[in-house]
């Protein structure tokens, strides 16, 4: 069974429509975010939660912000994807699912616009809405290590329906995928949402929030590498991020607890060295537990 790590509730998200107590779900180590559109203009009922995602973002057009509702923990499987028997895993494959209230269908958009029905047409979403999605993805990157990358093809609806744009992943690609994608990219699902979402702009905003290299020609690599997520610094962890952290601790003069030197294996010496660094910074002294989080990482590498 997977162990959940890091914060499970998106800051300020409402739990007024919380479904985890009724539908349970499996714990996961999330490394994928799937974006949906609801094809409606208000918060859905989701059949009482039987088809709910982890979170729903409802546009507040007057305030120019998204109001977030959380239905399941970030690292608990939700229920918004089709999962056929005998195929690949979808809902339970390390996926945090987000529904964006609005439409990606140009015909629906035209109909609602003609009727004066306020809504967001996501292929032409206002800049503030894209920035709000970017802020969520930046949080998922910092707190859970979800890569700020994804498919290049985001075909417009209705071409995207039933893989009309050739965008849907094979089972093998889906199983290996890490990052951000749309409902239309997930195998075993025929839906075409969120259509031609400006994914490149969302990623650009998310990376700007974190001061992460956006791979644009002419940009420079930032001085501070992105925090990979708390799950890489737990008992039994062995990875390149532990070694990277250890080398930086030694470089900053906080390697006293290493008997030989930093390694790829997270251990008590790493935790004690991190704790020493945290005690040296007034911003971190109140929570000097030796467990690296986004702020500890950023200050250590600054």
Automatic annotation (TrEMBL):
Matching InterPro entries: PG_bind_dom_phiBT1-type, PGBD-like_sf, PGBDSf
Regions annotated as coiled coil: none
Cross-referenced SUPFAM superfamilies: PGBD-like (SSF47090)
Name of the protein described by the UniProt record: Peptidoglycan-binding protein
Organism from which the protein derives: Streptomyces tauricus
Classification of source organism: Bacteria, Bacillati, Actinomycetota, Actinomycetes, Kitasatosporales
């Amino acid at each position: 069974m997977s162990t959940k790590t890091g914060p499970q509730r998106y800051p300020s998200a409402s739990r007024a429509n919380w479904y985890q107590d009724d539908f349970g779900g499996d714990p996961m180590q999330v490394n994928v975010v799937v974006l949906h559109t609801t094809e409606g203009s208000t918060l859905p009922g989701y059949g009482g939660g039987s088809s709910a995602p982890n979170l729903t973002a409802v546009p507040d057009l007057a305030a120019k912000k998204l109001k977030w509702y959380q239905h399941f923990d970030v690292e608990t499987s939700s229920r918004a994807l089709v999962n056929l028997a005998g195929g690949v895993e979808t809902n339970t494959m390390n996926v945090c699912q987000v529904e964006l209230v609005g439409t990606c269908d140009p015909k629906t958009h035209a109909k609602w616009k003609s009727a004066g029905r306020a809504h967001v047409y996501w292929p032409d979403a206002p800049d503030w809405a894209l920035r709000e999605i970017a802020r969520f993805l930046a949080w998922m990157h910092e707190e859970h290590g979800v890569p700020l990358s994804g498919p290049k093809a985001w075909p417009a609806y209705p071409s995207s329906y039933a893989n009309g744009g050739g965008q849907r992943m094979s089972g093998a690609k889906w199983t290996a995928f890490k990052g951000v994608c749309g409902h239309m990219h997930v195998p075993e699902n025929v839906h075409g949402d969120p259509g031609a979402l400006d994914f490149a702009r969302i990623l650009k905003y998310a990376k700007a929030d974190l001061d992460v290299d956006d791979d644009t020609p002419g940009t420079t690599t930032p001085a501070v590498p992105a925090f990979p997520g708390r799950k890489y610094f737990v008992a039994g962890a062995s990875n390149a991020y532990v070694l990277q952290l250890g080398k930086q601790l030694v470089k900053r003069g906080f390697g006293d607890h290493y008997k030989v030197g930093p390694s790829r294996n997270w251990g008590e010496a790493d935790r004690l060295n991190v704790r020493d660094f945290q005690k040296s910074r007034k911003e971190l002294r109140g929570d000097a537990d030796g467990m690296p989080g986004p702020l500890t990482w950023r200050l250590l590498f600054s």
